[in-house]
Automatic annotation (TrEMBL):
Residues 107-383 form the USP domain. It catalyses: Thiol-dependent hydrolysis of ester, thioester, amide, peptide and isopeptide bonds formed by the C-terminal Gly of ubiquitin (a 76-residue protein attached to proteins as an intracellular targeting signal). Its EC number is 3.4.19.12. InterPro entries: Papain-like_cys_pep_sf, Peptidase_C19, Peptidase_C19_UCH, USP. One of its GO terms (molecular function) is cysteine-type deubiquitinase activity. One of its GO terms (cellular component) is cytosol. This is ubiquitinyl hydrolase 1. PANTHER family: RE52890P, UBIQUITIN CARBOXYL-TERMINAL HYDROLASE. Keywords: Hydrolase, Protease. PROSITE patterns: USP_3. Belongs to the peptidase C19 family. The keyword rRNA-binding does not apply. One of its GO terms (biological process) is protein deubiquitination.
Length: 383
């Protein structure tokens, strides 16, 4: 205030002491405040400016200043955001409101201490359009009162999709509470692995779908059932391998295939493992289902390079020789993995932890991995 009151004219001062354009604006604000006490009183009531300390975060203090600028002449309001409307967020101002798709919402998820692992996966799944559509379709078709992890996920997605604002934040309290009930490993405040959470979530959703399908058929489904932790009957899928195999236990104890769910339709692909014996040149191949690909991360690399390395030929020798059925003995061989069938949505797991012998522990690999907006899998996909 002292600098403002003593400097009533800036044109006669040396250039280094002159006010900048911003200084002139706030100088005019100060004079207007003194001359128009009634306007100033109403303004303090509207903005609650008197209760805002100087050390408050900028995003809290700035709107009060912007509201004050509204009382300046139009010339002084040229660079202000007040004309854009109070409903437009800072993100929309920075990017441009016209850049947001009309029916899309961008909401951050509140972190409850250690839930960044789940928030990152949930964000990725929400913007996976086929998955989101199936989850919202599930909510529309299932009006039951029983709470499951899938119903909590559907409620969360529905809450985001029906928000009036385009951007904001939302607290997934109900989903996290249900997650901690379903899985003891997540019922703590320790750091968790996002990939493990993704595998658990996909498995559990598939289990719920199969259980409800069996109940709809009156318990006459081909697969066996078990009672899960939350009390509903479901097909036992304790690990991702069970979901990949897609089998249940029949009455005679044999493995019988189950009908695929929309989880399989979205995420399941087929890998082909090709092994060529270096002794007899016989090539054997084996197909297996996958829900994600785990790729190594190197320095100065890209997703395309990681996938090419995934399909590189590996030589099996020494203690890791291949047992050739044609030679009836262990022989040196060459092996490679190729994607036979791509899924609708390809999930990639970047192996960010690597065991280092010199440290005798796992260390995190923080190398930057470049990814294209359009991925072409040359020399990776068969045919």
């Amino acid at each position: 205030h002292r600098a403002t009151t003593t400097t009533t004219t800036t044109s006669h001062l040396p250039s280094k002491h002159r006010f900048s354009r911003k200084g002139e604006i706030f100088h005019q604000l100060y004079l207007a405040k003194r001359k128009e006490k009634n306007v100033s009183s109403k303004l303090r009531t509207a903005t609650n400016a008197s209760s805002i300390p100087l050390n408050r975060p900028r995003e809290v203090a700035i709107p009060c200043l912007l509201l004050r600028v509204k009382y300046l002449p139009p010339r002084a309001r040229v660079s202000c955001y007040g004309e854009m409307g109070a409903n437009i967020s800072q993100l929309e101002r920075d990017i441009g409101a016209d850049q947001f798709p009309p029916n899309e919402h961008y909401f951050g998820l509140v972190n409850f201490g250690n839930t960044c692992y789940s928030n990152s996966v949930l964000q990725a799944l929400y913007f996976c359009r086929p998955f989101r559509e199936k989850v919202l379709e599930y909510k529309a078709k299932n009006k039951r009162t029983k709470e499951t992890l899938l119903s909590c996920l559907a409620d969360l997605f529905y809450s985001i999709a029906t928000q009036k604002k385009k951007v904001g934040s939302i607290a997934p309290k109900k989903f996290i509470a249900r997650l901690r009930k379903e899985k003891e490993e997540f019922d703590n405040y320790m750091q968790q692995d996002a990939h493990e959470f993704l595998n658990f979530l996909i498995n559990h959703i598939n289990e719920i779908i199969l259980a409800e399908r069996n109940q709809a058929k009156g318990g006459a489904a081909a697969g066996g059932t078990t009672t899960s932790k939350n009390g509903h009957a479901g097909t036992a899928t304790p690990s991702l391998n069970h979901l990949l195999n897609g089998c249940g236990t029949g009455d005679n104890g044999t493995q019988q295939p189950q009908e695929p769910t929309w989880v399989h339709e979205i995420f399941q692909g087929i890998l082909t493992s090709e092994t060529r014996c270096l002794n007899c040149e016989t090539v054997s191949s084996k197909d297996e289902n996958f829900f994600d690909l785990q790729v190594d991360v190197d320095q100065n690399t890209s997703i395309t390079h990681c996938l090419r390395c995934f399909s590189n030929t590996e030589t099996l020798c020494s203690d890791n020789k291949f047992k050739c059925d044609n030679c009836c003995s262990y022989q040196e061989a060459q092996k490679r993995m190729r994607v036979k069938k791509l899924p609708m949505i390809l999930a990639l797991h970047l192996k960010r932890f690597k065991y280092m012998e010199q440290y005798n522990r796992h260390i995190k690999v923080s190398h930057r991995v470049v990814f294209p907006l359009e991925l072409r899998l040359f020399n990776t996909v068969s045919s």
